[in-house]
Write a structure and sequence with these properties.
alpha+beta, 7 helices
Length: 251
């Protein structure tokens, strides 16, 4: 089973004849650079909270823990440059194009999103060495996917407990971004209710999951202040594009 199918375009199982294929740094792929909402594991919260709001995205059949990387959905307005070195990539993107999958049928197959890197900065690395072993670059991606796999079940238990305890509330975002009336509205996000509103429920949650859950909730609450940085970055991106739009209208 592939976690979060919507993240991938062309999933394929890695086979021995892929020796000719190459992979590049995650940020060489447009999908990694531009993704607005990215699912995460709770174990990443302390690191990612320094850069992004941590929230939940409500979809038809599930609620996903995620980070909001930009208020714009076209690749602009990122306050933190998406690079592995800067620590701004969550595990699912650190692993890219290796796909995060759950164990299935007692096997441990490796899946790859077989897409083109549109901005490679070097020659990349082969997926497989001549002897059939994973290259170092591919091994590092597999390790990131494995770390996510180890944490995802507990992350989902956290989310299920918060949902069942009615401890999440809507977090609608509605901001004006430019002088010409540009606005952004995101209305499918949720956050944990303030402690004063959910005191008993939060105590039960913390009693069930312990110190790990307490650290996670602290990171989540602190991370929400990063929305001001995202708003600043989105407005700067809109302002930067304003001269080019004015020139286009004149010509």
């Amino acid at each position: 089973m592939i976690y979060w199918n919507e993240l991938y375009e062309n999933p394929r199982r890695l086979a021995s004849d892929w020796g000719h294929s190459r992979i590049f740094a995650p940020e060489a792929y447009a999908h990694v650079r531009t993704r607005q909402l990215v699912p995460i594991a709770h174990t990443e919260a302390l690191t990612l909270a320094a850069h992004f709001p941590i929230c939940w995205r409500l979809q038809k059949d599930r609620v996903d823990l995620c980070i909001l990387r930009s208020l714009l959905d076209d690749g602009r307005g990122h306050a933190a440059r998406p690079t592995s070195a800067a620590g701004t990539l969550p595990l699912v993107l650190r692993a890219f194009p290796v796909i995060a999958t759950a164990p299935s049928g007692g096997t441990d197959d490796i899946w790859i999103d077989d897409i083109v890197a549109d901005r490679p900065t070097d020659i990349g690395a082969p997926l497989l060495m001549a002897d059939g072993r994973l290259s170092r670059g591919a091994s590092l991606r597999v390790q990131s996917a494995a770390a996510l796999r180890q944490a995802i079940d507990q992350s989902r238990r956290f989310t299920e407990a918060l949902v069942d305890g009615q401890l999440l509330e809507p977090w609608p975002l509605d901001f004006e971004l430019g002088p010409d009336g540009q606005r952004v509205r995101i209305d499918d996000l949720q956050v944990v209710r303030p402690a004063a509103q959910a005191h008993a429920g939060l105590l039960r949650f913390l009693h069930a999951f312990g110190a790990e859950a307490a650290m996670f909730l602290t990171a989540h609450r602190i991370s929400l202040f990063r929305i001001a940085i995202l708003l600043q970055a989105a407005r700067a991106a809109i302002a930067k594009d304003a001269p080019s739009r004015e020139l286009a209208s004149i010509t």
